[in-house]
Design brief:
Helices cover 46% and strands 15% of the residues. Helix 3 (123-140) packs across helix 4 (153-164). It has 13 helices and 8 strands. The protein is globular, with a radius of gyration of 23 Å. The longest helix has 36 residues, at 2-37.
């Protein structure tokens, strides 16, 4: 028995040594990788800062291979769901054509918890922040105009900014476009009725959806559809054209604690603010509806997943809106993917953005 315990202890000892060794190797890879990817390109720019925006501190990163390139401001979705914990490789792929600015919106991302916001946040606040940041970037980077790119909830912010302040933008790019929340819910119901036609129980449940009610008011229905495999909660990283390990582990702009906050702590805080009414994402989408606003004074570009049947960003609604848009120039890129594919299929995004940059040069 003693001999057995001795052997067992030796096994555990070596397992411990191997685990410690692996952890040390991973930490060394992280340190070296972060330093390597935090280099500034010759003639380019690589900065992070907290910009003063409407009385709040808001984090941005700025990266580009050539300071003389035009500037692209990325507006993340959610609302208040920054992707700076994982998205840096995406922006590097666009950096040959644009100096890319990644923005964590007020109170979230790198801003949490030091610059956490506890006051109610309105749709008007978000548009005002976008305008103020645009003005800041034009001044800081010595540009007359910039291009704005928004994904999901960020798309409706970007569209409104371009519609309201066309003198400040070279172009607007939108991905996983929100046009009108209520119309998207109506089309979602139509889609799910077709999907569940051979499932009487789920079909009857889908018929209970009232498009005039917000998702939160009918959450149990949407959750049940998701659990039964009808709601499009795809494996979003399966379609990624970047390596998830390096995107997270070698991120030059995030500490482990910041990444933890963005993934877990902030989500809890956001849920509290939703519960107490301080933030109201669906209301933003309805208040900022662009369904009847189709006249753009700047070029309009749409990148959309063919399989995006997210309740708020139904692909059919986005494509129909694109067809109605009148703009100095417009183009559309359809990707074989779902809601997150306009970002995660970053090689296709980069190709589309390069095409846009070339068209802008020739205008």
């Amino acid at each position: 028995m003693k001999k057995f315990l001795k052997v067992l202890l030796k096994i555990f000892k070596w397992i411990g040594i191997v685990l410690i060794g692996l952890i040390l190797i991973l930490l060394l890879v992280r340190i070296i990788g972060k330093q390597y990817y935090n280099r500034t390109p010759e003639g380019g720019i690589n900065e992070t800062m907290y910009a003063d925006i409407n009385g709040t501190k808001q984090w941005i990163s700025i990266y580009g291979q050539d300071k003389d390139n035009p500037v692209l401001l990325y507006i993340h979705g959610g609302p208040f769901a920054p992707t700076s914990w994982v998205d840096w490789e995406i922006w590097r792929k666009l950096s040959a054509d644009f100096t890319v600015v990644n923005w964590d919106q007020r109170g979230y991302g790198h801003n949490y918890p030091k610059y956490q916001v506890t006051e109610p946040i309105s749709a008007d606040d978000m548009i005002a922040d976008g305008k103020a940041l645009t003005d800041f970037l034009c001044d800081y980077l010595d540009k007359e105009k910039i291009t704005v790119f928004g994904h999901s909830m960020g798309s409706i912010y970007a569209a409104n900014l371009a519609l309201d302040y066309p003198e400040k933008y070279d172009a607007v790019i939108v991905g996983a476009l929100i046009v009108d929340e209520q119309e998207s819910r109506r089309r979602y119901k139509e889609y799910q009725l077709k999907q569940t036609v051979n499932d009487p129980e789920m079909h009857a449940l889908t018929e209970q959806i009232d498009p005039e009610k917000e998702i939160a008011e009918q959450e149990e229905i949407y959750q049940e559809l998701m659990l039964k495999g009808y709601s499009p909660m795809e494996d979003i990283f399966a379609e990624a054209e970047t390596d998830l390990f390096s995107a997270v582990w070698l991120n030059p702009y995030c500490t482990l604690s910041e990444q933890y906050n963005m993934l877990f702590a902030e989500t809890t805080e956001y849920d509290k603010m939703v519960t107490n009414g301080s933030v109201h994402g669906e209301a933003y989408g309805e208040q900022l509806s662009i369904a009847e606003r189709t006249q753009y004074q700047v070029p309009f570009y749409l990148i959309q997943g063919k399989n995006d049947h997210n309740v708020g960003t139904m692909v059919e609604v986005a494509v129909e809106y694109y067809e109605k848009v009148e703009a100095p120039d417009k183009d559309i890129c359809m990707i074989d993917g779902g809601h997150m594919s306009p970002l995660l299929c970053c090689n296709q995004l980069a190709s589309f953005v390069h095409k846009i940059a070339e068209r802008q040069k020739n205008r």
